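Supplementary material to the annual report.
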Amino acid sequence: MLQIVFWFHAGVAIAAAVLCITRRSPVASALWLVVTLFATAVMYVLLDAHFIAAIQVLVYSGAIMVLFLFVIMLLNLGDEVATDMKGWFGRGVGLALAVFVGIEVWVVTRALPVDQIRLPAGELDRMTADQGAVRVVAEPLYTDYLIPFELTAVLLVAAIVGSVVLAKRKV
Amino acid sequence: MDMFVNLATPAGMSLAMLPEIVLTIAALALMLLAAWRHGGEEDQRLAGQVALFGLGLTMFVMWWLWLKGARPDGIAHMVTLDGFRYASSTILLLGAMLSVMLSLGYVGRERILTPEYYVLLLIATIGMLVMAAASDLIVVFMGLEIMSVCVYVLTGINRRSVFGAEAALKYFLLGAFASGFVIYGIALIYGATGSTNLTVIDLRTSNLELESHGMLLVGIGLLLIGFAFKVAAVPFHMWAPDVYDGAPTPITAFMAAGVKVAAFAALMRITVHALGGSIDAWQNAVWGLAVVTMLGGNLMALAQRHVKRMLAYSSIGHAGYLLTAVVSGTETGAAAFLFYAFAYTLVTLGAFGVLAAVGRNGERTVRIDDFAGLASKRPWTAFAMAVFMLSLLGFPGTAGFIGKWYVLSAAVESNQWTLGILLVVASVISAGYYLPVVMQMYMRPATTAEAHSDSAVLGAARWVVGGATTLLLLIGLLPSGLMNLARASTEDLKPGVQFTQQPAPSDQPMLSDED
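Predicted assembly:
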């Protein structure tokens, strides 16, 4: 059963991703991206990361995609967008890259992580039952990973200042 | 009298991050100041002075930690405290300070009156310091992103320049792509070793015999591609000439020196410390990158007629020399990198400072011929430029020579003879475009009587150019003090883990085989 759910959603995620980059209309692309993000959320559920799955749906499929659509509508990009896929050469390069990525995925799946670094089977389930789904994520985030967490604040400040500078009407 | 800092406690972590915290406060204070005072040139100058003060204070705090001999108690968690961090942070802060000093006059002249200019410059410097300090791949990535986001914006901050806009967009798209490679590589390295901490990665690779684990190898490859993009190594250099050309000149200098040194500092720490055990996996790849970057960068620079573009390609060539230091994979290589980076920062800031002064009507259009007769009209400026060109070339008597010699000896020490020979060949090629600048200045008369009448180096930029020239000659003649400092700074780059007290079993990451 799990196998079926996995393969179905993996297929949906990949197909939607391909559709996302091949559609001519930006709105259609954005909507296919939503499908990809939903299918990815299912992967998180399969990995017992329920909280991450919920966040994925709320933040990515919800908030960020709404912003995407807003931007597309504000820029008033209609249907008649010229394609930037460049003839047979561009497609050839794309195909070569796809083969390259295929080889890479093949190599990576040949080499699975060694047993010593894996969590014991059922460990994540046990932790979730003990501490609740949020705490399993939140506690390391605010203790072990506090420094990277604080650094994201600096990154966001930089991004806001930068976008204000570039978007200001008066030069 | 080393001071052991326990990075597991909030107080210890705050102490370890003190320079970054000071600089963050300075950047935020400057942001508030910019909100009130954003009238014109006077306010812009004030913002620059505040930025300079903030950078100076950060340097002071960094040196205080250095003098105290602060070092981590146990495994360096997230950030580390060692000589390599202090030395590379000093170089980065110096580069940022000199960039601010060049900007003081430049932004007024070019009417770049957005006071956020200095705020972004400070935040970019925070990112660089974080990269130099990071002992965890996640922190490396955060530093890289903070730095990159600010530099994308700074590239296009002159809204009236169409070349600036093109450069910023190009840099943003390719930079975001490169960041994708870096984070994918980090994810795979985590998948193979179960950790993002450099010490733990190193211990697990050797203890669990993961040296040729497929996932680790692919991860290292992707990480290298991402870093090669960021330091503009051939064949991932396509963005660099256009971006360096289109950005405001002080920002070009900041990118060519600071961004490159920060990325190399992180790469050096990752390769020597975390991936030292799997050196066979990456050494050949970096070797190839170094060779094509050295030869390719210098050959392409030969074909340039405009000075700013020529310096852009020359900085690609110098990335090749720095990659040579990475190939050795030893502490000597890291020490050579520090020395070279110091000289390179001085020379880059100085050369772009002179270019900004000479190119009063747009630096993009200054050609090598336009330097004709500078020696007779402005002897000191010409002398400084000559020192910079000879130092970039690696002429004996300048700091550039000692730096190159140090890199060469690091390569030879790890039996990289071919690489050493190719480095010398690349340097000979580079004479073909550095020397014409010197020849034009000293052996050709000025084209018109009023040429160079307004190309004086003014204000704070005079201190940058003068100071850089003096230091380059001084280090070129008396290098031993700085070389000893570089060597001492890299001794604990690959630290034996030291605990002053026995850690609780649960705190200790799994370091050894279960059996």
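The longest helix of chain A spans residues 50-74.
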